[in-house]
Design brief:
The protein is an all-alpha fold. Helices cover 69% and strands 0% of the residues. The chain has 2 helices and no strands. The longest helix has 28 residues, at 6-33.
Length: 48
């Protein structure tokens, strides 16, 4: 099996980091905005 090239490795790191930051911050904002009737945050359930 060949070792991935540097551009492939960097793009994988970029995509992974982007997804973690976008998913983490997005779920926190979504959780703060939308609450169920009993006050439970729904953001992590939908996005997590």
């Amino acid at each position: 099996m060949r070792t991935p090239t540097m551009p492939r490795r960097l793009s994988a790191e970029f995509i992974g980091t982007f997804w973690l930051v976008f998913g983490g911050c997005g779920s926190a904002v979504f959780s703060a905005k939308y609450l169920s009737d009993d006050g439970v945050s729904l953001g992590i359930g939908f996005l997590g």
